[in-house]
Write a structure and sequence with these properties.
The longest helix is centred in the C-terminal third of the chain and has 20 residues, at 353-372. The protein is 34% helix and 26% strand. A 9-stranded mixed sheet has the order 16-15-14-13-7-12-11-8-17. Strands 3-2-1-4-5-6 form a 6-stranded parallel sheet, with helices on both faces. A two-stranded antiparallel ribbon has the order 9-10. Strand 5 (98-102), helix 5 (109-122) and strand 6 (126-129) form a beta-alpha-beta unit. The protein has helices spanning 13-28, 45-55, 64-69, 85-94, 109-122, 136-146, 174-177, 182-185, 189-205, 328-345, 353-372; strands spanning 2-9, 33-41, 59-61, 75-78, 98-102, 126-129, 153-161, 208-216, 221-223, 230-232, 238-245, 250-256, 265-272, 275-280, 286-291, 302-305, 376-377. The protein is of the alpha/beta class and 381 residues long.
Length: 381
């Protein structure tokens, strides 16, 4: 089996999720390549060296440029703040490396377009890590919709609710709270949380044509974690938007970090002519399903436990016995297994950079609508 030497940039939350997936994928899937954890990269030498030892990387460096330039690195996996995505991805593509990038693709559409052009010009396999697509219940929802089981779709609604920034004492910037600094994140909940909701919606229900959005920043000043200086907050703490999909259905989306009691409540529901489905991250191995064609006396919402074998439910043949669930971490394993299989077959694996650019365009339209107070058309790809 041919080896694939992996260079991972970033050792925080997402760095751990990706490192775990690289470590586990070959244990559960027959991969066309043997991943080799060649080098990890991070700014703090002691921290990245400890990370490399824990996860089994052969070496550690503190300069991402050194990693990208190494001839013994085949793939660059980018798990760093959003403001670094473009420079690293473009350099990696120019060096002929395969590229996996954490979401969102970029700070803005212009960066996303440059990144997409770079990987396409280089002809390198590429992927953006919208991992929720690979949770088996979500993949099953996609299959049911694609089979036409819902009929015409009328409504799509989603929310992503958290509560970790309510205190005005939470700083902005720095290693732990860079998501609250516009220069690092690009936007707030729109690019962080709603990007997940939008990617899933585009995958399940097709393109979004136009949006009407409202954003709010509840805490307008925060101290910077590195300088200690009080500075204006320039990201959105909450966002709600309505939209019209290209297929004529209506959408309703909400994200906030001010929903006390919710740590990561991500849900979506799709209502169609013949059936409806609903999914909740807090019960991620179940898909709620309602089918109007059921016999009237037993018609109602059912909870489908997505753990069965025999090719009936996505990914589950690779795991435990039926009835035993998999979770969040396994979505990253599925992502790598799909990506490597596609690369070996010479075909793209979604969401690639071009697909993620569409999510970036929707996010841009949402923010533009919130600024103008008007409906905004999503820019064509």
């Amino acid at each position: 089996m041919k080896t694939l030497n992996v260079g991972l940039i970033g050792y925080g939350f997402m760095g751990r999720a990706h490192a775990n997936a690289w470590s586990q994928a070959g244990h559960f899937f027959d991969l066309p390549y043997e991943p080799v954890l060649k080098v990890a990269c991070g700014r703090q030498a002691a921290a990245v060296e400890a990370f490399a030892r824990r996860w089994g990387f052969e070496s550690a460096v503190t300069d991402w440029r050194e990693l990208v330039a190494r001839p013994d690195v085949d793939l660059v996996d980018i798990c760093v703040p959003n403001d670094l995505h473009a420079e690293i991805a473009i350099a990696a593509a120019a060096a002929g490396k395969w590229v996996i990038c954490e979401k969102p693709l970029a700070l803005d559409v212009a960066q996303g377009e440059a990144m997409t052009a770079a990987v396409e010009a280089a002809g390198v396999p590429n992927l953006v890590s919208f991992n929720y697509r690979r949770i088996p219940a979500v993949t099953l929802a996609r299959q049911l919709i694609a089979e036409g089981r819902l009929g015409r779709v009328y409504h799509y609604r989603a929310n992503f609710l958290q509560d970790w920034t309510i205190s005005p004492e939470v700083p902005q910037g720095g290693a732990a709270t860079w998501r609250l600094e516009a220069a690092k994140a690009g936007s707030g909940v729109t690019g962080d949380l709603l990007a997940h909701c939008i990617d899933t919606a585009l995958w399940l229900n097709g393109p979004i044509a136009s949006v009407n959005a409202l954003t709010e920043t509840f805490v307008t000043e925060r101290r910077h974690a590195e300088t200690g200086e009080l500075a204006p907050v320039e990201i959105d703490d909450a966002c709600t938007f309505f939209c019209r999909f290209a297929n004529g259905s209506l959408g309703n989306f909400e994200a906030t970090r001010y929903a006390r009691g919710h740590k990561a409540l991500y849900t979506f529901e799709v209502n169609g002519e013949h059936a409806s489905l609903r999914w909740d991250l807090s019960d991620l191995h179940r898909l709620a399903w309602f089918e109007h064609g059921d016999e009237g006396r037993v018609r109602g919402w059912r909870s489908v436990h997505v753990t069965d074998h025999g090719g009936q439910q996505p990914y589950m043949d690779h795991w435990w016995v039926p009835g035993l669930a998999v979770g969040y971490a396994e979505s990253f394993v599925h992502q790598l297994a799909d990506f490597l299989a596609a690369a070996a077959a010479g075909r793209p694996c979604g969401p690639d950079f071009r697909a993620a650019l569409e999510t970036q365009r929707v996010c841009a339209a949402v923010l533009a609508s919130a600024r103008s107070g008007r409906w905004v058309a999503v820019a064509p790809g």
